[in-house]
Amino acid sequence: LTDPMSPSTAVRALAEVFPAEGIVVLESPSATLALRNQLRLSSPGSYYFSSGGGLGFGMPAAIGVQLAQPSRPVVCVIGEGSAQYAIQSLWTAAAYDVPVTFLVLRNDEYSILKWFGMLEDIVDAPGLDLPALDCAAVASGYGVHSNVVNGPDELGEALSKALASDKPELVEVKVAPGMALA
C-alpha cells in the first residue's frame, strides 16, 4: 500500500462493504476509471455520472436519487474540489435527513485539470493545487456527521457505519494525487 492510499485502494474498500442494491453517484473525475474497475454495478439505475464532465452535479444528484429511491443506499463518490461546486447540498441533506453517504476522495489538487493541462502542454497553471480544504469540517458545520479516516481498514469500517445510518454521513479519506487508471 502507498501512503496516502491510491484512489483504487479507496474504491476497493468501498466495494468490500457496498450493498448489492446500492447506488453510486460519481463526481471524482480523477478516480472514475478506478471506480469503474473496482466496483461492479449491474442493477439498472445503480450508477449516475455526468457524461459531459461538468462539475457540481454530484452532491445534489445523490440527494435527489436517494429521495427518489429511499429503499436503496446511495453513495456519492466525490473529490474535494468537485464538492466545492455544490457544497451547500450538505445543508439540504441534513435539513431533510436524507441518508446519503458522501465519500470524499481528497487528493489536494484538481487532478483532472492538471491532466488536461498536461495534454495541452500547459504546466504550472495557477489554482490547481488545493489548500487543505476540510470537507469534513464543512459537513459538520452544516449538521452532517463526518469522519476523516486513514487506511483501507478504517475506511471500510467508516463506510459500513455510514451506510447503516439513517442520516447523511460524510467520510473523507486522503488519496494519492494524480489520475487513477486502475
Please outline the helices and strands.
Elements: H1 7-17, E1 23-27, H2 32-38, E2 47-49, H3 58-68, E3 74-79, H4 80-83, H5 89-95, E4 101-106, H6 111-119, H7 135-142, E5 145-149, H8 152-164, E6 169-174
Parallel strand pairs: 1-2, 1-3, 3-4, 4-6, 5-6
Helix pairs in contact: 1-2, 1-8
Q: How is this structure best described in words?
A:
The chain is 38% helix and 17% strand. With 182 residues, the protein is α/β, with parallel strands linked by helices. Strands 2-1-3-4-6-5 form a 6-stranded parallel β-sheet, sandwiched between helices. Helix 1 packs across helix 8. The radius of gyration is 15 Å and the shape is globular. The mean pLDDT is 91.
Short description:
The protein is an alpha/beta fold. It has helices at 7-17, 32-38, 58-68, 80-83, 89-95, 111-119, 135-142, 152-164, and strands spanning 23-27, 47-49, 74-79, 101-106, 145-149, 169-174. Helix 1 crosses helix 8.
SS-based class: alpha/beta
How would you write the strand order of the largest sheet?
2-1-3-4-6-5
| DSSP summary, beta strand count | 6
**DSSP strand (E) fraction?**
15-25%
Helix-strand pattern, N to C?
Answer: HEHEHEHHEHHEHE
Question: How much is the radius of gyration in Å?
Answer: 15 Å
Largest sheet properties: 6 strands, parallel
Kindly, what is the distance between the CA atoms of the first and last residues, rounded to a whole number of angstroms? 14 Å
| Helical content band | 25-40%
